[in-house]
Amino acid sequence: MTSLAKAPSDPGTSGKLRGRAALRLWLLDGMPEGSGKRQGPHGRPTENHKPQTWWRVMCLTGLDYFSTLGYQPAIAALAAGVLAPLATIVLVLVTLFGALPVYKRVARESPRGAGSIAMLERLLPRWWGKAFVLSLLGFAATDFMITITLSAADATAHVIENPFAPSFLRGQNVIITLVLIAALAAIFLRGFKEAIGIAVVLVAVFLTLNLVVIGVALVQVVHSPLLTNDWWTALTTQHGNPVMVVAIALLVFPRLALGLSGFETGVAVMPQIKGRATDTEENPEGRIKGAHRLLTTAAVIMSSFLITSSLATTILIPAAEFQPGGAANGRALAFLAHHLLGEGFGTVYDVSTIAILWFAGASAMAGLLNLVPRYLPRFGMAPQWAAAVRPLVLVFAAVAVVITIIFKADVDAQGGAYATGVLVLITSAAIAVTLSARRKGERGKTIGFGAVSLAFIYTTVANSIERPDGLKIALLFILGIVLVSLLSRLRRSFELRATYIRMDEAAMGFVAAVDEGTIRIISHDPKTRNAAAYRRKLAHAAEVNELGDLSDVLFMEVIVDDSSDFETALEVRGITRHGFKILQVHSSNVPNTIAAVLLHIRDATGLIPHIYFRWNEGNPITNMLKFIFVGEGEIAPVTREVLREAEPELTQRPWVHVG
Asked: Which of 113, 163, 251, 401 is the most exposed place for a label (fewest CB within 10 A)?
């Protein structure tokens, strides 16, 4: 086995680096370990990582999921008014009987934390699958980016509205939010890895404080029947009979959809979960069971908090306070904490909320830093610097600054964009498990998951129509990702793409038979495999190149399976067909594969191989496009260029003959 990857060059120590060189070295520091090394969504554990029990990992998920209690009740009350508690019940039903079963299935079929995006990548191969994955990455980026900006904006609201906050902070929402985002970026630029232990403390304290606030609020509701009667009267007066109330609750439910945010991260952190001693890499049943407990427990806890908090805040807080500029806008439970339990307890609640919201932003940043390098470099669709942490942090921070300025650090305004990202990911997961069930012939599950998919498709479309901001942001992300991806794919067209090369015994026997002299190989199209085609190709090569003795001439055939793949592992088989010796290999493209195999033969035998081509017919531009998108096209000149870039020493480079 030969690896064709090259070690990173030594920057050298001759003199002190200054200016641009020093900055570049600092930015690209640690680039080989840039992808998937942070704890959090889509992160891969290190070799010495100690797995954690599922409930501790649940707290890592809870940074994103449970922290939405800081703003979800206020957003629900503003969006649905007196219908908020009933719409929240609909949200809970969708959570427990829709999203939860879907993501339990995702956890079983993607136990390594790749999530629903990886499932769809497997189910939808080739270029359409890659395009779909890139689109989902755009929505995932929207989800994570809005988590950063929305969490920072809501943390700012808790800072400003605290009675002990200096008066000069009022009206400075954008500036304070930008400071929080800058602090987040600075921490990641210096180096930051989330600690599950910190997450456990933050989540435990935050949920305990919420339990106290909601418990006291519900006692207040019980002892204030007049307020409850006023709410019920307003509900029935505005919306008529109970059937109409339920119908309208179903219609307004999509406005509350950001309360579904924790499921994708719930499966993304699966590699952190401790399994059983009997778990294997192929069947980590213990880890899967732990993920199921994590998802179920988190969903039940969040559902309970959502219903009780929505009921308490809707009944006890005047509707005017939920409006922009109101004391409860974006911080309904904090409003109750201050009014029911005093300013001291309320301040403690504010501090806890600010901490978990900021840490939710850190979790989202870690998710982005893990997710982007997980797919784009493997697709050949990322520039080289995308493998480093610091350049990505700067890009994401700049995007967060732009989003914050556009939305003016308004929590309510960003709710729709956040919900869009969440809903598209959940919808894609529902579609993925539906397709999986159908492929496996599970008729009942196909129908059930199909119904869930339709429900989420409706919710996503309704949310996008009513609040298109999220769709616009996601489309900008998708456009940026696709543009960068295509440019990167073009720039990296002439790279060696083999992750490794292995030749079977027969193939090694073919090349080893040439003890001295020249290893001569003729490139052949595997679509024509009759004896006459091989004889014609051999006769043409012999006539044009004066090959002499033809007994040891080999043929090479590259069978293109999926041209959308970038890096592939090459298994070279030696076969004999019609008396001709053939090196056959499956790959994603022809010229890069031929170049990689030639270099491998050179390294394995110590002889410089010669490859013989015929010129391709057709327009050169058309052939080049065929090479990029189909893996064929201008084979001879591209093979020569790949070899030239891979082996700068001319005397060590395999020969390319074209006639």
From this structure: 163
What is the spatial distance between Cα 226 and Cα 141, in angstroms, rounded to a whole number? 46
Angle, in degrees to the nearest 10, between helices 389-407 and 173-190: 170
Burial 613-649 (b: 16+ CB within 10 A, else e): bbebeeeeeebbebbeeebbbbbbbbbbbbbeebbee
**C-beta separation of 409 from 189 below 8 A:** no
pLDDT tens, residue by residue, 185-194: 888 777 655 5
The three-point CA angle 627-631-637 to 5° equals: 45
pLDDT-wise least confident of 382-396, 420-434, 509-523: 382-396
Query: Residue 502 above 60 pLDDT?
Result: yes
Q: Side chain identity at 202, as an amino acid letter?
A: L
**Cα–Cα distance, 317 to 335 (Å, whole number):** 8
Mean pLDDT of 644-653: 89
Q: What's 493's DSSP letter?
A: T
Are 401 and 178 a contacting pair, CB within 8 Å?
yes
Determine the Cα angle at 470 with ends 125 and 118, to 5°. Answer: 25
The CA distance from 496 to 286, in Å, is 39
Q: What is the pLDDT of residue 581?
A: 92
Q: Could you report the per-residue pLDDT of 137-172, keeping only the tens digit for each?
A: 888 888 888 888 988 998 898 899 888 888 888 888
Q: What is the DSSP secondary structure assignment for residue 518, as one 8-state letter?
A: -
Q: What is the CA radius of gyration of the chain?
A: 30
Task: Collect all residues with Cβ–Cβ distance below 8 Å to 485 and sequence separation of at least 6.
Answer: 134, 376, 379, 381, 382
C-alpha dihedral sign at 329, 331, 337, 343: negative
Q: What is the pLDDT of residues 444-490, one digit of tens each?
A: 999 999 999 998 998 888 888 887 877 888 888 788 877 877 777 77
User: The dihedral of CA 117, 122, 126, 129: what is its sign?
Assistant: negative
Q: How far is CA 441 from CA 37, 429, 433, 467, 638, in A?
A: 37, 18, 12, 38, 44
Strand 554-560: give its sheet, edge to edge.
498-503, 568-577, 580-587, 554-560, 519-523, 609-613, 655-658
Q: What is the pLDDT of residues 366-387, one digit of tens each?
A: 777 777 777 776 666 666 666 6
CA 288/CA 276 separation, integer angstroms:
10
The whole-angstrom separation of Cα 330 and Cα 161 is 10
Structure tokens at 585: 């290999």
Angstrom distance (rounded) from CA 288 to CA 300: 18
Task: For residue 134, give both structure tokens.
Answer: 């890139």
Q: Which of 52, 306, 404, 96 is nearest to 194 (CA)?
A: 52
Contact 113, 44 (CB under 8 A): yes
Q: Which helix (H) or strand (E) holds 593?
A: helix 591-605
* CA–CA separation, 653 and 659 (whole Å): 19
Residue with tokens 């009759």: 530
61-65, 214-218, 386-390, 431-435, range with the lowest pLDDT: 386-390
CA distance 458 to 275: 37
Q: What is the pTM assigned to this prediction?
A: 0.75
- Residue 498 pairs in a beta bridge with 568
* Pairing verdict, β 554-560 and 580-587: parallel
Bridge partners (DSSP) of residue 580 are 577
Alpha-carbon distance 103 to 292, whole Å?
9
Q: Which residues partner with 612 through β-bridges?
A: 522, 657
According to the per-residue pLDDT averaged within each range, which of 125-129, 254-258, 367-371, 438-442 is highest? 438-442
Q: Name which residue leads in pLDDT, 72 or 19.
A: 72
Q: Residue type at 160? A: I
Q: Is the pLDDT of residue 8 over 50?
A: no
